[in-house]
Amino acid sequence: MPQEAKVAALEHLVVALLSEIQRLGGSRIENIYDAARASILEGNYPSDDDSRYAAKGALEDMATLIPVR
Question: What is the CA radius of gyration of the chain?
Fold first, then answer.
């Protein structure tokens, strides 16, 4: 299975999970997004700045798919 297909499947799974959490009145999606963004920017992985900013961009792209109340 190509890596791109695996990533796409995981993105769809994460979006579905976050949407369901929000629908059920669980954690605020914004809090989860902020924690993920901070983890990317402040963590050790990805280790180089180019990959870190690419990951941040991918997270921002994915966030547009999540309905926010």
Answer: 13
pTM above 0.85, yes or no: no
Residue closest to 12 by CA, chosen among 68, 66, 57, 67:
66
Residue with tokens 């009145």: 25
Label residues 16-51 b or e (16+ Cβ within 10 Å = b).
Answer: eebeeebeeeeeebeebbeebeeebeeeeeeeeeee
**Token digits of residue 2:** 């190509």
Q: Residue 23 corresponds to which tokens in the numbers above?
A: 């629908």
Tell whether the model's pLDDT for residue 36 goes beyond 70. Answer: yes
d(CA 26, CA 29): 9
